[in-house]
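Weekly modeling sync, notes
Attendees: AB, CL, MP (scribe)

Item 1: holo prediction request
CL wants a bound-state model with nicotinamide-adenine-dinucleotide before deciding which constructs to order. AB pointed out that an apo prediction alone won't tell us much about the pocket. Agreed to run with the ligand included and paste results into these notes for async review.

Input as submitted:
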Amino acid sequence: MSKNSPVRLALVGAGRIGSNHAELVARHVPGAALVAVADPTPSADRLAADLDVAVVEHSAQALLDRTDVDAVLITTPARTHAELVVAAAAAGKHVFVEKPMAVTLAEADRAIAAADDAGVVLQVGFNRRFAPGWVAARAAIDTGRVGTPQLLRSVTRDPGPFSADPARIPPGTIFLETLIHDFDALCFLNPGARPVRVTALADALIRPDAKAAGHLDTAVVTVEFDNGAIATAEASFSALYGYDVRGEVFGSGGMVTAGDARATDMTYYGPDGIGVDTARRDTDLLRSAYLAEFVAFTEAIRSGTPAPVTGTDARTALSIALAAVRSASTRGPVEVADVLAEVTA
Ligand SMILES: NC(=O)c1ccc[n+]([C@@H]2O[C@H](COP(=O)([O-])OP(=O)(O)OC[C@H]3O[C@@H](n4cnc5c(N)ncnc54)[C@H](O)[C@@H]3O)[C@@H](O)[C@H]2O)c1
């Protein structure tokens, strides 16, 4: 890659979020070009045609073998991520991987080691860190305006009505794929603190008929940090009013909040009263955050600086998620140290 040529990005996984990311990097990220798309299904061909991308591959490895690709965006299902990160790093490609980076700590360690060994950038898709409200909240914390964080809160409510087939949702998804955003956000908003203890309560309140098969669609998790802060994260798979993502930090010196269920700050006044619009999709509510994370990824590659969201950040969020999975089934607190110890045992 020469200094003035664009970073040549390729997409692995042309599904729902991959299509969103491909459109952003193809059309809106300065200094980046989308040069290839890989997916075993015809969605790769459709997406490449929509975005005028010349190269389509139907296997990830075929794409990784190409010499005209500098970096990959991995947007495949969660359980394939770590293996693809390892393969991409081995091929010398910089890697952006959607959350969760891995679903076990051993896999997370392999992914981090592979990127370190290859000397490639590894960035993980915790896009909330790039949303303007979260960026401003973190700045207020960094400059001392909130004082010492004491209570933190993070909320994710997916837009309803919930229509997915519970049987097709892997066990632990509410912790490993939904609340993982909140676990990372809580760490981001409590900088330098380590999670110590996790207690989770989860149920199938939206689809109680699927509970016996292990389905969980509603959860509250408390996370105790080593600086004394107490955090809660909560998730629901069915908010009828739209996609709802919010965070809050209350400290000794003040409070910050970030995020909103409102799509914009517009308020409509009409004959039936006053109302606001909500977003039905994460890709609408957080569009600027998704775009900013790809601008940052491209910049990290160009400048040779570390990614702003690292594999280690992803490992920390995963350790909380795994503790929450265990706590929800044992119905008691789980020490994060116990979860971490198992990987080194
Ligand atoms: N950061 C966010 O806000 C956000 C939002 C949505 C989804 N996600 C994450 O993105 C990931 C994908 O989610 P999705 O909803 O787009 O899933 P999806 O099922 O819509 O798409 C996944 C795509 O990957 C393809 N695929 C599977 N294995 C592959 C392989 N080995 N090589 C190439 N392609 C392969 C599938 O054919 C499919 O087209 C998940 O981990 C999810 O948690 C993140």
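Recorded for review: The domain at 7-126+290-307 is CATH 3.40.50.720 (Rossmann fold).
Action items: CL to compare against the apo run; MP to circulate these notes.
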